[in-house]
Design goal:
This protein is mainly alpha-helical. It has ten helices and two strands; from the N terminus they run αβαβαααααααα. It has helices at about 1-10, 30-35, 75, 80-90, 110-115, 120-130, 135-155, 160-190, 195-215, 215-245; strands at about 15-25, 50-60. It has a two-stranded antiparallel ribbon with strand order 1-2. Helix 6 runs antiparallel to helix 7 (about 135-155), helix 7 (about 135-155) runs antiparallel to helix 8 and helix 9 (about 195-215) packs antiparallel against helix 10. The longest helix is centred in the C-terminal third of the chain and has 30 residues, at about 215-245. It is globular, with a radius of gyration of 21 Å. It starts with a helix and ends with a helix. Residues about 1-60 have low confidence and may be disordered.
Length: about 250
């Protein structure tokens, strides 16, 4: 557990460095890392009476993804010009995504991750019942597309155009909900926005940012799940405040 924490901490600092740590069992707890990043993680062991050690080279993964090579009309259709524009504007980063292997939609972790999207459904439904149908509907739609995107991400794995298409649509739906919530906050004035909404908004942005630092496997799933929960709660709180201004 200590070695995994050190890995996460060094990855957050964005350094490609080498860490030596003692190994007390024959099976290395870092074996899953070699599967995740075979080019970046090396493991060596000494023999004899001396304590076994590992050399682990940690990569800088912040905003570093391979440029997509499968952006074509067969997958994107009429959205191809938009997909190409996003790809060009972000240097390939915008339509690339995290590899969540070995998690799949059929594993417990994958199912729990997908379930966090239902926070959007709950928040959107609650707003709609109270009369805020516009933001409520956008929140519901964002949750549906987010579920589609992450299910595809878990099911197909890395470098698949089907996942990139879902990601592009997710930008539209999530962006629409975020922009609407931002407009509501501006209309109400920063002084009128509930402190809880500001705290959850700040927390959700931090969690989303950490997804780009730990952009692989379980760390990504953890932080992105928190992003789903906190951003859905933020939308609900802002929607409630907007309802109160209309009464």
């Amino acid at each position: 557990m200590t070695r995994r924490f050190l890995f996460s901490l060094l990855a957050l600092l964005g350094e490609a460095s080498t860490r030596r740590a003692p190994l007390t069992s024959r099976k290395s707890p870092w074996s899953y890392l070699s599967l995740q990043n075979e080019d970046d993680v090396t493991i060596t062991a000494s023999t004899g009476n001396s304590e076994v050690e590992e050399d682990i080279k940690l990569p800088n993964t912040f905003f570093q993804r391979e440029r997509p090579k499968d952006i074509n009309s067969d997958t994107f259709g009429q959205l191809l010009p938009i997909a190409k524009a996003v790809d060009e504007a972000t240097g390939g980063w915008g339509l690339s995504y995290a590899d969540l292997h070995p998690v799949t939609p059929r594993t417990t972790v994958g199912q729990a991750f997908l379930a966090t999207n239902f926070c959007y459904a709950a928040g959107g439904l609650a707003l709609g019942v109270q009369g805020e149908w516009f933001l409520g509907a956008l929140t519901e739609l964002a949750g549906i597309v987010s579920f589609w995107y992450h299910y595809s991400q878990l099911e197909f794995g890395k470098d698949r155009s089907e996942v990139r298409l879902a990601l592009l649509i997710d930008y539209f739906t999530a962006g629409s909900a975020l922009i609407t919530g931002g407009v509501y906050m501006i209309q109400a004035g920063i002084d009128a926005v509930p402190v809880e909404a500001l705290l959850t908004a700040g927390g959700s942005v931090i969690c989303l940012s950490l997804c780009w630092v730990w952009e692989f496997g379980y760390p990504y799933i953890f932080w992105h799940s928190l992003w789903h929960i906190l951003s859905a709660l933020t939308g609900y709180l802002i929607g409630q405040e907007h309802i109160s201004t209309l009464v």
